[in-house]
Records
---
Amino acid sequence: MKFSIQINEGPYQHQASDTAYQFTKAALAAGHEIFRVFFYHDGVNNATRLAVPPQDDRNIGKLWQELGKENNLDMVVCIAAAQRRGMMDADEAKRQGLDTDNIAAAFRISGLGQLIEAGINSDRLVVFGA
Amino acid sequence: MAIKKFMYINRKAPYGTIYALESLEVVLIGAAFDQDVSLAFIGDGVYQLVKGQNTQAIGQKNFSPTYAALGDYDVNKIYVEKESLEERGLTLYDLQHLVWEDEDEDWAEKDSIRLVSRSELADVIDEQDVILSF
């Protein structure tokens, strides 16, 4: 089956991202396809490359980055939600005249149309959080 | 590709959290994709449609006028759960009068809001292909 995943909550504050990660990993292990992982609302904060959680805890952002790289996942951060929360990739930071960027390379920034397209192209869109 | 039935389920009050505003942003972008779109308002989500909102005292943007524009985006199936209104002491008359113009009937103005019971709404939800809940 072809799944898309929507994550609506930030890391640590809420379990949504952890659960979505476990679901995505399990779906891939069972041979399913992940069309896209879309980060919305505070979910965009999962894409930061600057999180430093305590060493005895999981690093949710890093787990996503590794899973994304290993499986060539299309991990999309909503640009509108990202901009209001100060999440920028290098291109966007430059365009906005900001002095730094904070989105990890495993993610890409794009519009909400990508979420709708994921709904159209997937057998199931599974929403985590909110 | 076949048209899918998309439903946006709105469950939260308009202010206090950003879910309502960012749900509306998805609806507006999604309208460009020519899918079969409907909205549902349940629980505290019914407050999103209350008329006469004034956000001056909380220093936030009042985005409620945007709901009146949904008809122009061909978003004209707006389900409001009757029990959710009643539980909050609201009636249909406390909500904005949302309308759309029917191209097939000489642009006749029609109501967008469909007041449905909890069990009727469950049947509508059951018919959907994609559900986005906020």
---
Amino acid sequence: MKISVERTGGIAAMTRVWTVDARSKTAINQWEPIVEACPWDAVPRTPRAAAEHFAGSQPDRFIYSIRAGDRRAALPERAVTGPWRVLVDRTRAAAQESGAGQGTPALDSRE
Amino acid sequence: MHVPFCSIVPPYLLRRLARQDAPEYSAAARAAREALGHVGSFQASRTQAMPDVPSGLRHAKPGPSNRIIYDAEGSETLPGRLVRKEGEPGTGDAATDEAYEGLGHTHRLYADVFGRNSIDGQGLRLDATVHFGKLYDNAFWDGTQMVFGDGDGEVFGRFTASLSVIGHELAHGVTQHSAALAYRNQAGALNESMSDVFGALVEQYVKNQSAAEASWLIGEGLFTPEVEGSALRSMKAPGTAYDDDVLGKDPQPDSMDSYVRTSADNGGVHINSGIPNRAFYLVAESLGGNAWDSPGRIWYETLTGGSLPTTATFSVFARATAAAAVELFGSGSQEHDAVRQAWETVKVKL
């Protein structure tokens, strides 16, 4: 199971992506409860939907796009609480430990 | 009789004065209504930069700043523990004291230059929280206060180190209390650009730098020495602020030719802001002198004049700045020409 957390926005607008690839049985057993604890069906799947869902943007705050296998979620920073916060923090820590944290451009296209 | 009055008070202030119906402003309101009739002749005769507006003629006299700094002590709970309030001496903590001074400098720009009484125009207390979160590499405005992280120590140091960033966050409050530009797509990029413009002006005003002397960098000094870059953004040359192996290259476009379509960052609000940022710089460069004078007044009037829609596009905003330049300085004035030329250069249609 591949888990990724993409963080965009912030005053610096630098995109950061942290990924974890849980392949071994031990790793899957470790990550599954963390992923399952998140209410995936109750939140928007895309940043655009998240902007409409969560009224009242706070300028310069981060926006998170989270994936775990086929599941997707997009949340403004202030909604990354409870199990979402655990998933984001654990993914970030594990990715940084393995050197998989990175800054990448998140531009869809230029015209 | 009122021509001398008219000659030193910009029309947008006259309009506001004219709308005052409180008894204490009745004489000023009447004078303003009469003076507005002479604006045309005032504009036609104008050839030099506008002199400062005497504080006694402003629509509301700005009061002194009222600042409170809190310390989140590494938590993400706001506002945190009160560590310094107005009039108290420095604490010795760099983030606390930088935030306190930065709020004061920002309040001073709005009061001295634009006659604005704090960010809401009504003397709002300025609250800020420092030491927010752990290794938190951001600063933001939450709708009521500013929040500053200490940085992760690898890419970013503490966010209070840059006065333009402090001014940037407070300007979000000014925008919220004036044009209330939506924080998405082009309106969001304009919202961001307003914060960069007034953040840069705070820094230039404190340093008493002319447009030619200023760096036009936003967030200078935030990066650690390990990063190949000078700042978060360059208003003078968008897209050139950093170019780093890890962070990549500054993605800001400098004209509509390279406008970025993206779903990230609320539709690229921090990216496409490079276009209106450069337009402001070009106006300031063209007019010379201090950017907080004529260029700042044109942008400030556009933001606070009451006619800008919350979903304004770049073109709508550009037309509003041109209209403000005409209102303040007259059609065909050098200020009006500078505004038109700037938008043409960045390829935003008027």
